[in-house]
Amino acid sequence: MVPVRLTGPRLAMREYHHTEGDVDALHALFGDPEVTRYLPFGPRDRESCADQIELYLEQAMAEERDTYRLAVTRLDDARDPQDAPPIGLASLTLGTHRAADLGYVLARDHWGHGYAGEITALLCDFAFRTLDLHRLAARVDVDNAASARVLAKLGFRLEGRARHDQFKDGVWSDSYHYALLADEWPGPDGRWHGNGHGDGGRGREPGSGG
Ligand SMILES: CC(C)(COP(=O)(O)OP(=O)(O)OC[C@H]1O[C@@H](n2cnc3c(N)ncnc32)[C@H](O)[C@@H]1OP(=O)(O)O)[C@@H](O)C(=O)NCCC(=O)NCCS
To answer: Which of 10, 16, 183, 197 has the fewest C-beta atoms lying within 10 Å of its C-beta?
Structure first.
């Protein structure tokens, strides 16, 4: 396996380790019902989080890797990013025709600092520049306004609303489907040049008719 390491202005991403610290951190994330509120699964116990990490490592070692589950750490943590406890998880799941689905989850203490935007930008760079993908998609519960905002700010376009595409705790919910194509991502200077809507990079918000 070639371990993935990504570094942004404030955050780093690395492979998960099967250590007590990483299991605790994943449990702090997936054990919190507020965090899993819009995810397709409910809160997970510690044992199931340990199993998840085992699965992530198996996926990382696959001969043709198509799944990335990366631990997100803070650069201002005194420890090396390889050892710092994860505050969140970033994911990329490759499909056919150079396409992938992306996702991000942050521990509640770390919401509201723009970290999800930084994670998504790092995933876009990795997907388009390193993996040479053509299309990145994300599915967002229609009530998850913060996540929709993260994607719209980075230029993801709203492609539609899928009705009842999630069933959880006996309730159906709808999702917004967003996507970004490789040629819509900033050039090598790393600057965002707008998203073609003439709206200052804000993208098209759900409910605006898309
Ligand atoms: C969704 C999530 C990733 C957002 O992370 P974050 O780092 O707090 O997001 P950011 O700070 O980068 O940006 C959030 C944006 O949404 C806005 N926002 C936050 N809560 C909002 C709300 N209830 N309604 C509307 N906008 C909201 C913020 O103001 C910010 O916009 P701004 O930069 O224009 O001010 C985080 O809340 C989370 O991990 N949630 C649980 C897991 C999850 O839902 N993951 C996404 C699955 S699709």
So the answer is: 183
